[in-house]
Design goal:
Elements lengths: L1 E5 L3 E5 L4 E4 L1 H4 L6 H10 L1 H14 L3 E2 L15 E4 L17 E4 L4 E2 L4 E3 L7 E12 L8 H4 L3 E13 L7 H6 L5 E2 L4 E3 L10 E6 L2 E7 L7 H9 L9 E3 L15 E6 L6 E6 L11 H6 L17
Parallel strand pairs: 5-15, 7-11, 8-17
Antiparallel strand pairs: 1-2, 1-12, 2-3, 3-4, 5-6, 9-10, 9-15, 10-12, 13-14, 13-16, 16-17
């Protein structure tokens, strides 16, 4: 099943690729905010799955093109992101040590929203297309063998980054947790819809040009190990996000006016966002791989606008 919010934070499930059914009345409790609602739905999924399915069969639904889709997880408690978690198409000799970082829940934005580049002296802004797991039940010190049973579903996720912020020793928090730096959507796909999450193609387009195109089979630390690692550090709650990392070779500079789309195969839908920058800064359009193949530093160097050094 595919679940999201639409319009004025109505809860919906997709009937097919073109219609969405409003199921708010089946799940809503008085004074429940959108994230509390979706977290509650996830926690009570065993009870709600059948009435949702019956509503899909019974109702014609609204045309998907007629509604505004929203972030399906508007304010998760935790957003944990795996770091350096791909073998980069076999170019890494061995996996990096397993590691992760957290993004602020305030970084979430949804379909049709803009990633806003802040007025800071970052060397470059990038966005990483990722598959993210959505936690379905409380997970604490989960063993890898049991990890998949704690996943409710999956969602498209873009991990925004402001590279090169200073001081370098304090860069990670500043780089990753900016407002709007975690676009997700357009919906959650429940785990039962995904036959093998470790064999899915992930693609990102910028202005219609494919920039990232990789398979989750290249993941260094597989999904069960990621859940095991994160849940050994802190408990995960229903509706929490574990973003599973990216292949960095297609990363490139995000800049003002960009129309970014990403999609994981298997019914995830296409997440579409824009990029805005009041400073109108500019960078070369090449990917990291294209720059490396020319013997250049993989991170693009700013060529125009405030903070440019050339």
């Amino acid at each position: 099943m595919r679940i999201t919010f639409f319009n004025n934070w109505r809860l919906g499930v997709l009937k097919d690729d073109h219609h969405i059914v409003d199921v708010t009345a089946l799940a809503w409790h008085a004074s429940m905010a959108p994230f509390d609602l979706i977290a509650d739905v996830i926690a009570r999924w065993a009870t709600l799955k059948r009435p949702f399915a019956e509503a899909i069969a019974r109702e014609p639904g609204l045309p998907l093109a007629s509604v505004r889709l929203r972030a399906p997880l508007p304010r998760p408690v935790n957003i944990d992101c795996m770091a350096v978690n791909y073998m980069e198409d076999g170019t890494r000799a061995e996996p990096a040590l397993i590691n992760a970082f957290m993004k602020s829940p305030m970084a979430i934005c949804g379909p049709g929203d803009a990633m806003v580049l802040p007025d800071i002296p970052a060397s470059v802004f990038e966005g990483e297309a990722e598959i993210a797991a959505v936690i379905g039940k409380t997970a604490s010190n989960v063993k890898a063998d049991d990890a998949m049973a704690h996943i409710f579903g999956y969602v498209n996720f873009i991990d925004g980054s402001a590279r090169g912020v200073q001081p370098a020793a304090q860069s990670f928090y500043q780089m990753k947790s900016r407002d709007t730096f975690a676009p997700i959507g357009p919906w959650i796909v429940t785990a039962d819809e995904i036959r093998d999450p470790q064999n899915l193609q992930v693609r990102l387009w910028n202005n219609g040009v494919v920039k990232q195109n990789y398979n989750t089979s290249d993941m260094a630390h597989k999904i069960p190990r990621c859940i095991e690692f994160v849940s050994s550090i802190h408990a995960l709650a229903p509706g929490d996000i574990v973003a599973l990392g990216t292949n960095h070779r297609g990363l490139h500079a995000f800049q003002d006016g960009d129309r970014v789309e990403m999609e994981v195969e298997g019914g995830f839908g296409r997440l579409k966002i824009s990029v805005t920058d009041e400073l109108k800064r500019a960078w070369p359009r090449e990917t990291r791989l294209e720059r490396q193949d020319r013997g250049e530093e993989p991170l693009a160097v700013q060529t125009a606008g405030k903070y440019a050094k050339v």
